[in-house]
Every structure is written in C-alpha cells, then in structure tokens.
C-alpha cells in the first residue's frame, strides 16, 4: 500500500497507534454528533490525504457488527495540530470500503 502523496488519497491501511490516538481525541465529539455513547471505539482501517495538513477517513469499530466512518482534518504542526471532526457516517460494516471525502 502506498503512503499519501500531496493532493492524493492513500490506499486503505491498517490503523496504527497514532490513528487510535487521534480517534480517542475526537470520541467525545463523535458521541455528541451521533447522540450515542460507545464503550468500544477502535480504529481498524484508514486512508489519508496530505493537503495543508492531513485529512483522515477512518473506519472505527464500535461493538458487535457496527462500524462508523469518521472523517477528520489535522492541521500542520505550525498551526497547532488541531483536529477537526468533519463528518461521521453510521451503519457501516466491516467490509464497507472507506470512501474519501
């Protein structure tokens, strides 16, 4: 699988501890947006795109057969590395492809 190139989306990759950390940081925002509490919130796959920061499209397992697709933007270090939740899609399965936003 290739890494993200400026302007282009990466292939789908297995989530890393860094991706899980990003998900942990936005879990509260995701719960507020979906109006649900998640005991499990495990990043499993992701894609990314480098463009004035990094866009992430992440598949998150939230228990049983349920998965979310979470789209985020992380700004560059010189802009504070803020993480912005863009979109949450519910009702995904383990095998659904992660679509770039």
Automatic annotation (TrEMBL):
Stated family: Belongs to the cystatin family.
- Species classification: Eukaryota, Metazoa, Chordata, Craniata, Vertebrata
Query: PANTHER family recorded for this chain?
Result: CYSTATIN 14A, TANDEM DUPLICATE 1-RELATED (PTHR11414:SF21), CYSTATIN FAMILY MEMBER (PTHR11414)
Q: Which Gene3D superfamilies match?
A: 3.10.450.10
Q: What is its main location?
A: cytoplasm
Query: An example of a Gene Ontology BP annotation on this entry?
Result: immune system process
Q: Which domain of life is it from?
A: Eukaryota
The keyword Cytoplasm is annotated on this UniProt entry: yes
Q: Which UniProt keywords apply?
A: Cytoplasm, Immunity, Protease inhibitor, Thiol protease inhibitor
What protein am I looking at?
Cystatin-B
Task: List the GO cellular component terms.
Answer: cytosol
Q: Where in the cell is it found?
A: Cytoplasm
The reply to whether Cytoplasm figures as a keyword in the UniProt entry is yes
